[in-house]
């Protein structure tokens, strides 16, 4: 945090020494929630008192403290209090089912659960909760805990290598697992972000992306706290309400996923919304459509796409502001303190303008998954993290995400990248969303199945879709099957749940007769 209590202890590897931390901007506003504002001094005091309350209940270094609920000031207070104790924060996805929440609580061995009222029904469906959970704190009780809290005298030393947070992966590829991010990982990601993004001490940022996701935590929020700006957590995304809040509070920045940007620029308020206060918007999590990027750029908003993953805290690539308008769908160049390499056909390779699997290393990259040593070891090769993503690097050094290695379809010996096919499909105005997955085929090994979600009021014709594909793609890339759906399955960050679609395609389409 930007300010901290005096008289804390520091560990420099030579024993424990008294230390005094600087109070940089204690009277600046740190958090805004409704009509309430907390200064950095207020936040530091409340954090220390909440940490004291947790310590009085036996929470100490290494213990896991889970949080279940929408974005709120209490979320940050819980995180900071947890970290003061050397404990580990475990933010949970409130959009999951009860059994999934129970599984994560059990997997993490959480000793404490802080939960907001919106999560009460979810917790009821998660019962019985694991035996490891010895304390539950409703968010409504945090004020009382803070008021009664004795503060924290002599917090334990916390090193950069100590774990700070367990972030569960989105689960689009199977059973979620927790990436262990250290304090050093979060710190170096913040430094990397600040090298690419101009964040000022008077920043007024919205925290829109959920805080159980690396995007919500690392892309804007922690960098803004680092610089002494203010953060306003948003409990629920509503495109019209966000546009109104930007005007009312003169918001200067936020981070989001592409789906949110699309919903905002398609909202009836978009044309008249005053976006003049915005100095920058960072987005990531999935590729953006060019028309969406152009809509924001045409309004004079500096739009920067970032690429990363939970395991990298999350930043790996970022589009520099100077070239973003000329590369509206590219993810830019590597962050300053990030090393990248390519793996092709199982061997190190030069970019060469063709897709290769991205390898990453750096001080922001995690060391492994929680209690999964074999999966952790398999995720690295010679010290490099295997992202599983296929990237293409152009001659000017700007990179674009091609696809996921596991999503690639091999049809008749030819590589078909679903993202390429989806990009062509989304050129049609009548298509709101598209996903292409592979389906087993006795003749070709695999063929494509395109699931298309029409835009509201649009009427899609399969023949017209196929004609458009034929005019823009090689024949072997054209999906064998075209399926129209009212909605595509997606997780909390807007990513398509391809595992679900692949299972559906295999069950419904694999035995259908037809010609590829």
UniProtKB/TrEMBL annotation:
<keyword id="KW-0436">Ligase</keyword>
<dbReference type="InterPro" id="IPR000873">
    <property type="entry name" value="AMP-dep_synth/lig_dom"/>
</dbReference>
<dbReference type="InterPro" id="IPR045851">
    <property type="entry name" value="AMP-bd_C_sf"/>
</dbReference>
<dbReference type="InterPro" id="IPR020845">
    <property type="entry name" value="AMP-binding_CS"/>
</dbReference>
<dbReference type="InterPro" id="IPR025110">
    <property type="entry name" value="AMP-bd_C"/>
</dbReference>
<dbReference type="InterPro" id="IPR042099">
    <property type="entry name" value="ANL_N_sf"/>
</dbReference>
<comment type="similarity">
    <text>Belongs to the ATP-dependent AMP-binding enzyme family.</text>
</comment>
<dbReference type="Pfam" id="PF13193">
    <property type="entry name" value="AMP-binding_C"/>
</dbReference>
<feature type="domain" description="AMP-dependent synthetase/ligase">
    <location>
        <begin position="20"/>
        <end position="370"/>
    </location>
</feature>
<feature type="domain" description="AMP-binding enzyme C-terminal">
    <location>
        <begin position="420"/>
        <end position="495"/>
    </location>
</feature>
<dbReference type="GO" id="GO:0016874">
    <property type="term" value="F:ligase activity"/>
</dbReference>
<protein>
    <submittedName>
        <fullName>Long-chain fatty acid--CoA ligase</fullName>
    </submittedName>
</protein>
<dbReference type="Pfam" id="PF00501">
    <property type="entry name" value="AMP-binding"/>
</dbReference>
